[in-house]
Amino acid sequence: MRSVRLCVLSSGSGGNSLWVDAGASRVLIDAGLPLRETARRCKSAGLDVRDLTDVFLTHEHADHAHAAGILGRRLRVRVHATRGTMRALRDPPPEDLRHVVRDGVAVRLGGLTVTPVGLPHDAHEPVAYVVDDGAARAAVLTDLGSVTAGIVRALQRLDALVLEMNHDPGLLLNGPYPWSLKQRIRSDVGHLSNEQGARVLRDTLHGGLRYLVLAHLSEHNNTERHALKAAEKVLEKYGSAARLCVASQARALEPMVLEGGSAVPLRRGRQLALFG
Prior knowledge:
276 residues; alpha/beta; Metallo-beta-lactamase, Chain A; 7-stranded mixed β-sheet; 25% strand
């Protein structure tokens, strides 16, 4: 049976990176950690960074794209990004390894399909990604300030969702950031609050969702307790059995293995199952 394996190597303002493999494809979505730390996180999860074939960047901010250039030069991996992101990179990969992606246009890597989804964020042409091998389907949705109908449509029928829950509005407004930064985070091109993330979950939840990873939590403007409470409320309401955890800035999570299978009806009541 075919399977897709996902591993969140890191998530947060200090660096973001997620490993995906399916068949012969070994992919990083975002490369926000230094190469040495990426290799260390991979090894801790039973992965080998030298097996990488491709990197897909969501946008050019350093916590998502820091190592894109060196991964291209050292490991000769292909680097995929929108034209806007590629032009804005401080350290771009070699020209022969640059591959431009477009919103809604799928990239096929053997049996794995990677589809960019345009996002509202204060970057140059940012995207999320949906990965699909025909049997299992997952998405990485972080770094956006608002949610469009098109984004919700792209996130249907997922087996796994890595979902931004960046801040609690009360903690943000009463926190240490300058007012201009608070306004940026709260804007339509900033970051999702816990409540906004919960609405995304509500609008995309179905009986086949197996894993939910809460991601990109702010160190100063959120807590795991606040984020988990918002997600648990939705999961409990609809009786979802999805396994729930919070991505870490400090360590890789346990890999998630997705195998093809049919969805099950949402039911009343659920038992919370943390992993990682």
